[in-house]
C-alpha cells in the first residue's frame, strides 16, 4: 500500500524506543505496507555533528524521506525534549522534507511528566517541515516496555491496546484519499486513562 520510513532517534544500542518501533513495524507490514527502518545512531557521527550535507550516508537518509509516503518518528524524551541525535538528522533534511507525508510521532520516557514533549517539542518541528497530516501522537512509559532475551519487546497489555489503535489510525490515514489534505490534524483521542493536561495538548499516555 504505502512506503513507511520508521525512524528511531535513540542514541542507545539497547534502546527501548528502537525496539518498540521495530515491533510496530511488524504490525504495519502485516497491514500491507512496505516499512523501511532507520536508526539514526547508525549514521556516521562525524557527518551528523559536522553537518556534512554531502556525506553519502546523509544523502541516503534524505532519499529515504523523499521516497516515503508516511514517517514514524520515535524518540526517547530527555529533559522534556526529543533527543539531540534526532535533531542532528532533522537539521540536515530539507526545510520541507515532510511535505505531503503522513507522520506518526511516538515517544518513550520514564515518567508521565514528559508526556507533553510530543506536542510542545516534536510536533511543531514536524509541522514546520511541511507534514501534510500529523496523526495522534503517543507516549509510552519505559516500564510498559519489557525487552526479551531475543531483542523483541512485550508491551503492557493496557498500553498495547491503545498503542495499536494509534498505529492503526496512522495506517488508515495512509490509504489513498485519506488524511492527506494538508495541515496538522488531531484525530480522536483513543479510549484510555488520560491526564487532563495530556488530553488538552493532544498527547496521550495510558497510566500504570
- What characteristic shape results from the CA principal axes? globular
Task: List segments where confidence is low: pLDDT < 50 over at least 5 consecutive residues.
Answer: 179-208
Radius of gyration: 16 Å
Integer average pLDDT:
86
Percent in helix = 25-40%
User: What fraction strand?
Assistant: 15-25%
List SSEs in N-to-C order.
Answer: EHEHHEEHEHEEEEHH
Structure description:
The protein has helices at 16-30, 45-49, 56-67, 84-90, 117-128, 157-173, 196-201; strands at 3-8, 34-39, 70-78, 81-82, 102-109, 133-134, 138-141, 145-147, 153-155. Strand 5 (102-109), helix 5 and strand 6 form a beta-alpha-beta unit. It has seven helices and nine strands. It is globular, with a radius of gyration of 16 Å. The longest helix has 17 residues, at 157-173. The protein has 208 residues and is α/β, with parallel strands linked by helices. The strands form two sheets. Strands 1, 2, 3, 4, 5, 6 and 7 form a seven-stranded mixed beta sheet that branches. A two-stranded antiparallel sheet has the order 8-9. The chain starts with a strand and ends in a 7-residue tail after the last helix.
List keywords for this structure.
208 residues, alpha/beta, 7-stranded mixed sheet, two-stranded antiparallel sheet, 9 strands, 36% helix, disordered C terminus
